[in-house]
Amino acid sequence: MNRTKDYNIIKYLNSIKGGCQMFLDGILSPYTPCKKYPLGNSVSGYLGYIDTEPFYIPPSFSDVKTDPKLSSLRPKFVLLSAPGAAGKSSLAKYIAHRFDALYWNLAKVKVGTNSFAGSILNAVGSSKYSEFIADLNVGNVLLVIDALDEAEIISGRKMLNCFIEDISNSLSNHTLPTVFLLARTETAQYVASFCAESKIPVAHYEIGFFDETAAKFFIVKSVAGKGTPTKPDAECADCYYDVIKNNITPTEKLSFLGYAPVLEAISTHIKAFPNRQKMISELANQKDCVNIIMKIMDDLLDREQTEKVIPAFKERCAVSHPEFSDWEKVYSPKEQLVRVIYYILFQDCSYKNYELNFLPPQLVSEYQSVIESFLPQHPFIRHTAETNGIERPIDFTGPAFRDYALAKIILNDEYEALADMYFDYSQSQSHFPSQIFFDCYMKISGNKILPSHISYVYDSFRAKATVYERPYLECTEIPASDSEDSNCLAVFGMVANKKCSLKRDDCLAEIRLTGAPLKFEQLSFVTIDAPDVDVYLGKSNVDCQICNSSVICRKLKFCTQNISIESYEPESCLLVPHEGFIGDGVIIDTSKAQTLKVNAPNLNNYYAFIPYSYDFDDVSNFDIIKFIHAVHCILIEFRTHRKDTLAKTADRIEHVTVGNSTIKRQVLNYLKACGIIYESYHLYKIDESKMQEKGIFFNAPARMDTVLMNPAFADFCKWTSNS
After folding, report:
1. Pick from 185, 226, 224, 178: which is nearest to 202 by CA?
2. Residue whose C-alpha is closest to residue 309's, from 289, 333, 286
């Protein structure tokens, strides 16, 4: 029997030893322009040559070094990864154009066993297939495969594995890596782990951010477009960049001012405003990154309203309808965003569901005519041609514009469904929310998240991760008391590799408990402890993964037919729906569920879970899982306190948090005996230095990290036996 390979992202992350900074030209130095093959029409939708030179300015790159077991001097693949919206597709098309390499977009086709061989056969024909493979092995042909993250979603991990193995088997006589794989960070970590365990050698590079020189050059080139940059363009780019740099922290400088979507937004802002000095002086007072992005977007929307549409509408109507005076209501920012999203979805300007109560009926048709003239040219909308003059779908100008608009509209009750519709559409078009969606959403909502939005928000937060980091989310229901309503605390955090230089603070938010379920399409390093809340997992016709995640809830509903569970040490996977699972005909794959534990009243209806049965409520068997859960339930209360010293009323901890729970009572007494929790007047406070002495860190209980928490558990057991 073949051993199931341990495709463990945690293991791969821990294997990374750091790496040196690289330039793109250094990575591409072994390659020369390739032989071009005539291609069949049947593959034209996803496989072809890039004839038009794309706009691309290379940022920095990091050579991701691992231990000798996971590295090789003769890689078969070049794996290029990046955080969300950091220019992977632009890089892929740049490489393809520069070397006449074949560009393969996995977002446009499902892959699996024989997908590689079959596609190449259809592309070059049976008579040329062997010649093509021989050329691929020696570097006469290069293959650039984009959107592995979309392939993971569309086709599932098993099929992605088969696809990679298929290519690897075709490279049996390779002399250099001739296949480039591009993916978002999390997918790249998985692919690298899979290749390591499958003994497929890979060279892994992380696409970084732009340094100051490259960032300014990006802005200037983008402002100039196809023309030659002018001296005023360069001066404005310098000034704009410096104003922002001087008003943000050094830590934010690289991740914000080196982030391609931000530079793209700055360029659009500069191009749109002739009075650039005024624009720069207004920015000088902005001290927060998200404020700056929102200021850029707000200015662009204001300009469309006050300098374009209103003057045009006045010209057509002011004389014939002097009675109308509500010009400030015309083409408001909200209306623009609603119409932009609708236009992108349906290529239609005539959106009928936006109330125009401010207009007299006789002006509606004139207004609609003005909209039809201006909306297609909106600065948030991009019309570009792809290859060989073939139009690609109309879309947002870039990720920053998209995610600002979606954050605004999804938080508007009246038009939330329109944003949901775009998210559904974008999944089939290979889009993810960038980190800007997270920042804008949190700013607009005041760090309050609707249950139906949590999946979007977490996906966006995950886009912040570099290859040296692993994101996680904990959602914890904080019980109600006589003086406080129940709420759900969300903590977004990063587990960093030792070589990661970027240290991030956790982000805390409140999930507004409205009676609605928490909805997730996937669970990747998510901990949910919400006994009175339902959780919906998955999406129709899309395979769902539960990866090193724990769910304690009221009911857990499976909204898809295929569920795969990956659970690796040191972290556990715990499923405890107190009122049971919901979902018929669900196929559950537990082949990689090493540390899975399940407790549910209808467990026997889900036979795949039966071998993992676990009595979560048995106080006589007080194991490390129950210890970690009790520690987490107690400590999370203190994280809701935002003052310098973490504190909570002793009465709440004793009677609400712990209550009648025997397990929590024992753990609380232990934490008090250790001095981790101490009493000060009517408060219980946390001594974080004592926590560290016992090896307890806030994110370890959140992630059910049994290895990190084992010393504390051993000490607890010793204390229990002696007390």
Report:
1. 178
2. 333
Decide if 288 contacts 318 (C-beta within 8 A): no
Would you state the pLDDT for residue 5?
A: 47
Give the model confidence (pLDDT) of 167-198 as tens digits. Answer: 999 999 999 999 999 998 888 888 998 898 88
Same domain as 564, residue 450:
yes
Task: Provide the domain count of the chain.
Answer: 4
The residue segments making up the domain with residue 167 are: 9-207
Q: What does DSSP say about strands 647-649 and 683-686: parallel, antiparallel, or unpaired?
A: antiparallel
> How many whole angstroms separate alpha carbon 581 and alpha carbon 32?
56
Query: What's the Cα-to-Cα distance from 232 to each of 55, 224, 238, 279, 568, rounded to whole Å?
Result: 21, 11, 10, 15, 56
Q: Is residue 212 part of a domain?
A: no
CATH number of the domain that residue 138 is part of: 3.40.50
Q: How confident is the model at residue 111 (pLDDT cuts 50, 70, 90)?
A: confident
HSE of 292, CA atoms in CB hemisphere, 13 A? 27
554 shares its domain with 652: no
The pLDDT value recorded for residue 388 is 38
pTM as predicted: 0.83
Last residue of a domain, which of 407, 431, 455?
Answer: 431
Residue 2 pLDDT more than 50? no
Which of these three, 561, 581, 612, is where a domain ends?
612
Flag whether 540 is in a domain: yes
Number of C-beta neighbours around residue 365 at 10 A? 8
Tokens of residue 427, six digits: 């999944």
Instruction: Note the pLDDT tens digit of each residue in 538-576.
Output: 988 888 999 999 999 999 999 999 999 988 888 889 999
If we measure between CA atoms, which residue out of 236, 237, 239 comes closest to residue 216?
237
Q: Rounded distance, CA 255 to CA 175, Å?
A: 37
